[in-house]
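Same chain as my last thread, 407 residues:
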Amino acid sequence: MKYVLVIGDGMSDDSIEALGGKTPLEALTLPNFGVLAGSETGTCRTVPEGVPAGSDTAILNIFGYDPRLCYTGRSVLEAAGVGVTLRPGEVSMRVNLCAVEEIGGQLVIHSHNGSGIEGDEAETLMRDLLADERFAAVAERAGLTIHVSRTFRHIGVFAGPVPEDAVFHTTEPHNVLEQPVARHFPTGAMAEEITALMRVSYEVLRSHPVNQAREARGLLPANMIWPWGAGRAMLLPDFTKKYGRRGTVISAVPLVWGIAELAGLKHPLVEGATGELDTNYTGKVEAALAALKAGDDFAAIHVEAPDEMTHAGDLPAKLEAIRRLDAQVIAPLLERLPALGDFRILLLSDHKTLMATRTHDGKPVPYAIYDSRCPGRPSRLDEATAARGRWMPEGCAIMGRLLEANA
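reply #2:
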Protein backbone atom coordinates (compact mmCIF):
# COMPACT_ATOMS: atom_id res chain seq x y z
CA MET A 1 0.00 0.00 0.00
CA LYS A 2 1.29 3.45 -0.92
CA TYR A 3 0.23 6.70 0.71
CA VAL A 4 0.57 10.17 -0.82
CA LEU A 5 -0.08 13.58 0.72
CA VAL A 6 -0.47 16.60 -1.60
CA ILE A 7 -0.59 20.07 -0.08
CA GLY A 8 -1.75 22.96 -2.27
CA ASP A 9 -0.42 25.73 -0.08
CA GLY A 10 -3.03 28.43 0.49
CA MET A 11 -5.32 27.28 -2.32
CA SER A 12 -8.46 27.43 -0.15
CA ASP A 13 -10.11 30.84 0.08
CA ASP A 14 -13.30 32.67 0.94
CA SER A 15 -15.86 33.74 -1.67
CA ILE A 16 -14.61 36.31 -4.17
CA GLU A 17 -16.84 38.86 -5.88
CA ALA A 18 -14.85 38.64 -9.13
CA LEU A 19 -15.68 34.92 -9.24
CA GLY A 20 -19.40 35.48 -8.83
CA GLY A 21 -19.25 34.93 -5.08
CA LYS A 22 -17.44 31.61 -5.41
CA THR A 23 -14.07 30.55 -4.06
CA PRO A 24 -11.32 29.60 -6.54
CA LEU A 25 -11.92 25.90 -5.84
CA GLU A 26 -15.65 26.35 -6.41
CA ALA A 27 -15.18 28.37 -9.60
CA LEU A 28 -12.67 26.09 -11.33
CA THR A 29 -13.29 22.86 -13.22
CA LEU A 30 -10.77 20.45 -11.70
CA PRO A 31 -11.49 16.95 -12.98
CA ASN A 32 -8.66 15.20 -11.16
CA PHE A 33 -9.50 16.85 -7.85
CA GLY A 34 -13.00 15.53 -8.53
CA VAL A 35 -11.72 11.96 -8.86
CA LEU A 36 -10.06 12.22 -5.46
CA ALA A 37 -13.28 13.53 -3.95
CA GLY A 38 -15.10 10.36 -4.97
CA SER A 39 -13.89 8.41 -1.95
CA GLU A 40 -14.13 10.91 0.91
CA THR A 41 -14.41 14.66 1.29
CA GLY A 42 -14.71 16.79 4.36
CA THR A 43 -13.50 19.82 6.22
CA CYS A 44 -10.48 19.85 8.51
CA ARG A 45 -9.30 22.37 11.08
CA THR A 46 -5.64 22.38 10.13
CA VAL A 47 -4.87 25.38 12.35
CA PRO A 48 -5.99 24.82 15.95
CA GLU A 49 -8.02 27.59 17.53
CA GLY A 50 -5.82 30.14 19.22
CA VAL A 51 -2.76 29.22 17.11
CA PRO A 52 -1.40 31.69 14.50
CA ALA A 53 -2.36 30.71 10.95
CA GLY A 54 0.70 29.81 8.89
CA SER A 55 2.28 27.02 6.93
CA ASP A 56 4.50 26.23 9.91
CA THR A 57 1.69 25.53 12.36
CA ALA A 58 -0.65 24.03 9.76
CA ILE A 59 1.81 21.63 8.13
CA LEU A 60 3.11 20.47 11.50
CA ASN A 61 -0.50 19.70 12.38
CA ILE A 62 -1.14 17.89 9.09
CA PHE A 63 1.91 15.70 9.71
CA GLY A 64 0.46 14.75 13.09
CA TYR A 65 2.44 17.10 15.33
CA ASP A 66 0.10 19.28 17.37
CA PRO A 67 1.60 22.79 17.28
CA ARG A 68 0.03 23.55 20.65
CA LEU A 69 2.49 21.06 22.10
CA CYS A 70 5.62 21.27 19.94
CA TYR A 71 5.79 24.62 18.14
CA THR A 72 8.64 26.96 19.14
CA GLY A 73 8.75 29.28 16.11
CA ARG A 74 8.86 29.17 12.33
CA SER A 75 12.51 29.97 11.78
CA VAL A 76 13.81 26.93 13.67
CA LEU A 77 12.00 24.71 11.14
CA GLU A 78 13.58 26.57 8.24
CA ALA A 79 16.96 26.40 9.93
CA ALA A 80 16.67 22.63 10.23
CA GLY A 81 15.70 22.46 6.56
CA VAL A 82 19.00 23.99 5.45
CA GLY A 83 21.15 22.10 7.95
CA VAL A 84 21.47 24.78 10.62
CA THR A 85 21.25 23.22 14.09
CA LEU A 86 20.63 25.52 17.03
CA ARG A 87 22.80 25.20 20.12
CA PRO A 88 21.43 25.72 23.64
CA GLY A 89 20.58 29.36 24.26
CA GLU A 90 20.48 30.37 20.59
CA VAL A 91 17.49 31.87 18.79
CA SER A 92 16.90 31.66 15.06
CA MET A 93 14.91 34.00 12.85
CA ARG A 94 13.67 33.88 9.30
CA VAL A 95 15.33 36.72 7.35
CA ASN A 96 13.37 37.75 4.26
CA LEU A 97 14.65 39.97 1.49
CA CYS A 98 11.75 42.38 0.99
CA ALA A 99 10.90 45.18 -1.41
CA VAL A 100 10.23 48.55 0.18
CA GLU A 101 9.79 52.04 -1.22
CA GLU A 102 10.07 55.48 0.34
CA ILE A 103 6.69 57.20 -0.02
CA GLY A 104 5.95 60.51 1.66
CA GLY A 105 8.93 60.13 3.95
CA GLN A 106 7.95 56.62 5.04
CA LEU A 107 9.17 53.22 3.93
CA VAL A 108 6.27 51.11 2.63
CA ILE A 109 6.57 47.35 2.01
CA HIS A 110 5.41 46.16 -1.42
CA SER A 111 6.67 42.56 -1.50
CA HIS A 112 7.55 40.11 1.27
CA ASN A 113 9.84 38.16 -1.08
CA GLY A 114 11.65 40.85 -3.04
CA SER A 115 9.38 40.18 -6.01
CA GLY A 116 10.40 36.53 -6.01
CA ILE A 117 14.16 37.14 -6.07
CA GLU A 118 16.30 34.01 -6.22
CA GLY A 119 19.55 32.57 -7.56
CA ASP A 120 22.66 34.67 -8.08
CA GLU A 121 20.82 37.93 -7.40
CA ALA A 122 19.57 36.86 -3.98
CA GLU A 123 22.91 35.39 -2.96
CA THR A 124 24.90 38.39 -4.19
CA LEU A 125 22.73 40.87 -2.31
CA MET A 126 23.03 38.98 0.95
CA ARG A 127 26.75 38.30 0.71
CA ASP A 128 27.47 41.94 -0.14
CA LEU A 129 25.25 43.05 2.74
CA LEU A 130 27.14 40.84 5.18
CA ALA A 131 30.46 42.16 3.88
CA ASP A 132 29.45 45.81 4.31
CA GLU A 133 31.26 47.36 7.27
CA ARG A 134 28.18 49.24 8.48
CA PHE A 135 25.97 46.17 8.54
CA ALA A 136 28.69 43.88 9.87
CA ALA A 137 29.23 46.16 12.85
CA VAL A 138 25.54 46.17 13.77
CA ALA A 139 25.28 42.39 13.28
CA GLU A 140 28.32 41.81 15.50
CA ARG A 141 26.85 43.93 18.29
CA ALA A 142 23.60 41.97 18.00
CA GLY A 143 25.40 38.62 17.95
CA LEU A 144 23.75 37.75 14.62
CA THR A 145 25.00 35.24 12.06
CA ILE A 146 23.08 34.99 8.78
CA HIS A 147 23.15 31.77 6.77
CA VAL A 148 22.67 32.73 3.12
CA SER A 149 20.49 30.86 0.64
CA ARG A 150 19.79 31.33 -3.06
CA THR A 151 16.22 32.50 -2.43
CA PHE A 152 14.61 35.42 -0.63
CA ARG A 153 14.59 33.22 2.50
CA HIS A 154 17.66 33.32 4.76
CA ILE A 155 18.29 32.14 8.32
CA GLY A 156 19.60 34.35 11.09
CA VAL A 157 20.91 32.96 14.38
CA PHE A 158 21.38 35.10 17.48
CA ALA A 159 24.16 33.67 19.61
CA GLY A 160 23.36 32.56 23.11
CA PRO A 161 22.78 32.85 25.83
CA VAL A 162 19.42 34.42 25.02
CA PRO A 163 17.34 34.22 28.23
CA GLU A 164 14.65 31.56 28.18
CA ASP A 165 12.04 34.11 29.19
CA ALA A 166 12.93 36.52 26.37
CA VAL A 167 9.85 37.24 24.25
CA PHE A 168 10.30 38.37 20.66
CA HIS A 169 7.50 40.29 18.94
CA THR A 170 8.00 40.40 15.17
CA THR A 171 5.52 40.66 12.31
CA GLU A 172 5.19 38.44 9.26
CA PRO A 173 5.99 40.70 6.29
CA HIS A 174 3.39 39.00 4.06
CA ASN A 175 0.71 40.17 6.50
CA VAL A 176 1.49 43.89 6.25
CA LEU A 177 1.93 44.51 2.52
CA GLU A 178 1.39 48.09 1.34
CA GLN A 179 1.72 49.36 4.90
CA PRO A 180 4.40 51.62 6.40
CA VAL A 181 7.31 49.57 7.71
CA ALA A 182 7.75 51.69 10.85
CA ARG A 183 4.38 50.52 12.19
CA HIS A 184 5.69 46.97 12.25
CA PHE A 185 9.21 47.24 13.58
CA PRO A 186 9.78 44.61 16.29
CA THR A 187 9.05 45.09 19.95
CA GLY A 188 10.06 42.97 22.91
CA ALA A 189 13.43 41.22 23.14
CA MET A 190 16.24 42.67 21.00
CA ALA A 191 13.83 45.07 19.31
CA GLU A 192 16.39 47.86 19.09
CA GLU A 193 19.03 45.60 17.55
CA ILE A 194 16.69 44.05 14.97
CA THR A 195 15.30 47.44 13.95
CA ALA A 196 18.83 48.74 13.48
CA LEU A 197 19.64 45.76 11.25
CA MET A 198 16.59 46.47 9.10
CA ARG A 199 17.36 50.17 8.74
CA VAL A 200 21.02 49.64 7.89
CA SER A 201 20.17 46.93 5.36
CA TYR A 202 18.02 49.41 3.46
CA GLU A 203 20.82 51.96 3.39
CA VAL A 204 23.20 49.33 2.01
CA LEU A 205 20.90 47.63 -0.48
CA ARG A 206 18.76 50.41 -1.93
CA SER A 207 21.39 51.47 -4.49
CA HIS A 208 23.04 48.08 -4.98
CA PRO A 209 23.80 47.30 -8.65
CA VAL A 210 21.62 44.17 -8.50
CA ASN A 211 18.65 46.28 -7.47
CA GLN A 212 19.41 48.95 -10.03
CA ALA A 213 19.40 46.24 -12.70
CA ARG A 214 16.14 44.79 -11.38
CA GLU A 215 14.42 48.15 -11.46
CA ALA A 216 15.69 48.73 -15.00
CA ARG A 217 13.93 45.48 -15.95
CA GLY A 218 10.70 46.64 -14.34
CA LEU A 219 11.10 44.49 -11.22
CA LEU A 220 10.86 45.50 -7.60
CA PRO A 221 14.17 45.77 -5.73
CA ALA A 222 15.03 43.48 -2.82
CA ASN A 223 16.27 46.27 -0.61
CA MET A 224 15.57 45.48 3.05
CA ILE A 225 15.93 42.48 5.31
CA TRP A 226 13.02 41.57 7.56
CA PRO A 227 13.80 39.24 10.50
CA TRP A 228 10.79 37.43 11.96
CA GLY A 229 9.52 34.12 13.35
CA ALA A 230 11.90 33.74 16.30
CA GLY A 231 12.34 30.17 17.47
CA ARG A 232 14.39 27.87 19.65
CA ALA A 233 15.35 24.25 19.08
CA MET A 234 12.38 21.97 18.39
CA LEU A 235 12.14 18.19 18.76
CA LEU A 236 9.60 16.07 16.88
CA PRO A 237 8.82 12.38 17.36
CA ASP A 238 10.18 10.21 14.56
CA PHE A 239 7.54 9.85 11.84
CA THR A 240 8.37 6.22 11.05
CA LYS A 241 8.16 5.20 14.70
CA LYS A 242 4.95 7.18 15.13
CA TYR A 243 3.14 5.75 12.08
CA GLY A 244 5.13 2.72 10.98
CA ARG A 245 5.68 4.27 7.54
CA ARG A 246 8.92 5.31 5.82
CA GLY A 247 8.69 8.40 3.69
CA THR A 248 9.96 11.26 1.58
CA VAL A 249 8.83 14.90 1.41
CA ILE A 250 9.08 16.90 -1.81
CA SER A 251 9.01 20.69 -1.53
CA ALA A 252 10.82 23.81 -2.66
CA VAL A 253 10.79 25.62 0.68
CA PRO A 254 13.09 25.22 3.69
CA LEU A 255 10.18 25.30 6.14
CA VAL A 256 8.82 22.01 4.81
CA TRP A 257 12.30 20.50 4.51
CA GLY A 258 12.79 21.37 8.18
CA ILE A 259 9.64 19.60 9.28
CA ALA A 260 10.76 16.57 7.27
CA GLU A 261 14.26 16.70 8.74
CA LEU A 262 13.05 16.90 12.32
CA ALA A 263 10.56 14.09 11.68
CA GLY A 264 13.22 11.80 10.22
CA LEU A 265 11.86 11.94 6.65
CA LYS A 266 13.95 12.36 3.50
CA HIS A 267 13.65 15.66 1.60
CA PRO A 268 15.60 15.59 -1.67
CA LEU A 269 16.08 18.71 -3.77
CA VAL A 270 14.26 18.81 -7.11
CA GLU A 271 15.90 20.81 -9.88
CA GLY A 272 13.69 23.67 -10.99
CA ALA A 273 11.42 23.44 -7.96
CA THR A 274 10.53 26.90 -6.64
CA GLY A 275 7.73 28.45 -4.63
CA GLU A 276 6.44 30.24 -7.70
CA LEU A 277 3.93 29.52 -10.46
CA ASP A 278 6.62 28.12 -12.77
CA THR A 279 7.81 25.47 -10.34
CA ASN A 280 8.81 22.06 -11.71
CA TYR A 281 5.55 20.20 -11.07
CA THR A 282 6.65 17.22 -13.15
CA GLY A 283 9.94 16.93 -11.32
CA LYS A 284 8.17 16.90 -7.97
CA VAL A 285 5.88 14.07 -9.07
CA GLU A 286 8.81 12.09 -10.48
CA ALA A 287 10.73 12.46 -7.21
CA ALA A 288 7.76 11.25 -5.18
CA LEU A 289 7.13 8.27 -7.44
CA ALA A 290 10.84 7.37 -7.41
CA ALA A 291 10.81 7.33 -3.61
CA LEU A 292 7.75 5.09 -3.54
CA LYS A 293 9.25 2.75 -6.14
CA ALA A 294 12.44 2.54 -4.07
CA GLY A 295 10.51 1.21 -1.09
CA ASP A 296 9.01 4.15 0.76
CA ASP A 297 5.44 3.75 1.97
CA PHE A 298 4.68 7.48 2.09
CA ALA A 299 5.43 10.50 -0.08
CA ALA A 300 4.36 14.12 0.36
CA ILE A 301 4.30 16.76 -2.37
CA HIS A 302 4.03 20.39 -1.28
CA VAL A 303 3.21 23.08 -3.87
CA GLU A 304 3.73 26.65 -2.66
CA ALA A 305 2.48 28.50 -5.75
CA PRO A 306 -1.18 29.17 -4.82
CA ASP A 307 -0.08 30.81 -1.57
CA GLU A 308 2.56 33.01 -3.20
CA MET A 309 0.19 34.08 -5.96
CA THR A 310 -2.36 35.12 -3.32
CA HIS A 311 0.21 37.11 -1.36
CA ALA A 312 1.01 38.85 -4.64
CA GLY A 313 -2.67 39.74 -5.06
CA ASP A 314 -2.80 37.98 -8.44
CA LEU A 315 -6.11 36.12 -8.75
CA PRO A 316 -5.56 34.82 -12.32
CA ALA A 317 -2.20 33.40 -11.23
CA LYS A 318 -3.77 31.74 -8.16
CA LEU A 319 -6.36 30.11 -10.41
CA GLU A 320 -3.65 28.96 -12.79
CA ALA A 321 -1.56 27.52 -9.94
CA ILE A 322 -4.54 25.41 -8.84
CA ARG A 323 -5.19 24.27 -12.44
CA ARG A 324 -1.58 23.18 -12.76
CA LEU A 325 -1.78 21.29 -9.48
CA ASP A 326 -4.80 19.41 -10.85
CA ALA A 327 -3.30 18.71 -14.29
CA GLN A 328 0.41 18.33 -13.55
CA VAL A 329 0.43 16.72 -10.11
CA ILE A 330 -2.84 14.92 -9.40
CA ALA A 331 -3.41 13.64 -12.95
CA PRO A 332 -0.02 11.88 -13.29
CA LEU A 333 -0.31 10.47 -9.77
CA LEU A 334 -3.67 8.91 -10.62
CA GLU A 335 -2.22 7.57 -13.87
CA ARG A 336 0.98 6.07 -12.50
CA LEU A 337 0.34 5.02 -8.91
CA PRO A 338 -1.73 1.95 -9.92
CA ALA A 339 1.48 0.36 -11.20
CA LEU A 340 2.69 0.30 -7.58
CA GLY A 341 -0.44 -1.39 -6.23
CA ASP A 342 -3.19 -0.04 -4.01
CA PHE A 343 -2.83 3.56 -2.86
CA ARG A 344 -4.43 6.40 -0.95
CA ILE A 345 -4.05 10.14 -1.66
CA LEU A 346 -4.85 12.99 0.72
CA LEU A 347 -5.23 16.41 -0.95
CA LEU A 348 -5.81 19.58 1.02
CA SER A 349 -4.78 23.17 1.56
CA ASP A 350 -2.60 23.73 4.61
CA HIS A 351 -4.58 26.88 5.45
CA LYS A 352 -6.68 29.44 3.66
CA THR A 353 -4.90 32.36 2.03
CA LEU A 354 -7.38 35.10 1.27
CA MET A 355 -7.37 37.22 -1.86
CA ALA A 356 -9.33 39.83 0.08
CA THR A 357 -6.46 40.46 2.50
CA ARG A 358 -3.49 38.67 0.86
CA THR A 359 -2.88 37.01 4.23
CA HIS A 360 -3.32 33.61 5.88
CA ASP A 361 -6.51 32.60 7.63
CA GLY A 362 -7.01 29.81 10.15
CA LYS A 363 -10.54 28.74 9.24
CA PRO A 364 -11.04 25.04 8.36
CA VAL A 365 -10.18 23.88 4.83
CA PRO A 366 -11.63 21.23 2.50
CA TYR A 367 -9.87 17.92 2.03
CA ALA A 368 -10.27 14.73 0.00
CA ILE A 369 -8.91 11.25 0.69
CA TYR A 370 -8.92 8.92 -2.31
CA ASP A 371 -8.66 5.17 -1.89
CA SER A 372 -7.96 3.12 -5.02
CA ARG A 373 -9.79 0.17 -3.46
CA CYS A 374 -13.06 2.14 -3.22
CA PRO A 375 -12.82 5.07 -5.64
CA GLY A 376 -16.48 6.06 -5.59
CA ARG A 377 -18.13 8.41 -8.03
CA PRO A 378 -16.20 11.60 -8.96
CA SER A 379 -17.44 14.67 -7.15
CA ARG A 380 -15.86 18.04 -6.35
CA LEU A 381 -13.24 19.22 -3.89
CA ASP A 382 -14.25 22.69 -2.80
CA GLU A 383 -15.42 24.51 0.30
CA ALA A 384 -19.16 24.14 -0.37
CA THR A 385 -19.03 20.43 -1.20
CA ALA A 386 -16.67 19.60 1.64
CA ALA A 387 -18.97 21.27 4.15
CA ARG A 388 -21.45 18.44 3.54
CA GLY A 389 -18.83 15.77 4.25
CA ARG A 390 -16.85 14.58 7.26
CA TRP A 391 -15.84 17.12 9.91
CA MET A 392 -12.34 16.77 11.40
CA PRO A 393 -11.95 19.21 14.28
CA GLU A 394 -8.38 18.08 15.06
CA GLY A 395 -6.07 18.45 12.08
CA CYS A 396 -3.33 16.42 13.74
CA ALA A 397 -5.55 13.34 13.26
CA ILE A 398 -5.74 13.56 9.48
CA MET A 399 -2.34 11.94 8.85
CA GLY A 400 -3.39 8.89 10.84
CA ARG A 401 -6.57 8.77 8.78
CA LEU A 402 -4.60 8.83 5.52
CA LEU A 403 -2.16 6.17 6.72
CA GLU A 404 -4.81 3.97 8.31
CA ALA A 405 -2.66 4.05 11.42
CA ASN A 406 -3.24 4.76 15.07
CA ALA A 407 -1.00 7.70 15.90
